[in-house]
């Protein structure tokens, strides 16, 4: 599924987004638009050059992150899991059905996971980076996840959306629930929704 073209301008400055960004854990019942989800994914891992460089930095451009969307309330998307393709700015369906409640159960019962309009899930394929940098590559992968998540948090703020990073979850259980590959380790979620 081709996503809408992302925008590269805004009425909110970077400085305003930094100053306004706060962790928001309570959301209204309103849906996100596909344009908003497109913008969030582009900020997270979208390609910014014809050579394939992405909007978030990555050690040696090894790009160890796979980005998934758990859609709950997104206009034009059925409930389910989607994989983001940065090079083409597309979503590929991976799993149908409502996943948020079980993900919340597997995330220490956090309501922000259950109530999010969408969850962006960053999963790491460590070998992409450790093959080049050895054990130090593990740290670089974690830095990559932080860069991508911060981009999403600032983009959500610029769009007037609420968001919060989530790191407390059962890693193996979430990997199994989402049907991720054995070499994909879920590291980080960003929960996004409309503020009340």
Kindly describe this structure.
This protein is globular. It has one domain: NADH Oxidase. Helix content is 34%, strand content 21%. The protein is α+β, with helices and mostly antiparallel strands and 196 residues long. It is built from seven helices and six strands.
In terms of topology, how is this protein built?
Blueprint: H1 14-20, H2 34-45, E1 65-71, E2 80-85, E3 90-96, H3 100-105, H4 111-115, E4 118-124, H5 127-133, H6 136-158, E5 162-166, H7 171-177, E6 185-193
Antiparallel strand pairs: 1-2, 1-4, 2-3, 4-6, 5-6
Helix pairs in contact: 1-6, 2-6, 5-6
Number of domain modules? 1
Tell me which CATH architecture applies here.
Answer: 3-Layer(aba) Sandwich
Q: Compute the gyration radius: what is it?
A: 16 Å
Going across the major beta sheet, what is the strand order? Answer: 3-2-1-4-6-5
Which class do the helix and strand fractions yield?
Answer: alpha+beta
The shape is: globular
Question: Largest sheet, described in full?
Answer: 6 strands, antiparallel
What CATH calls the topology is: NADH Oxidase
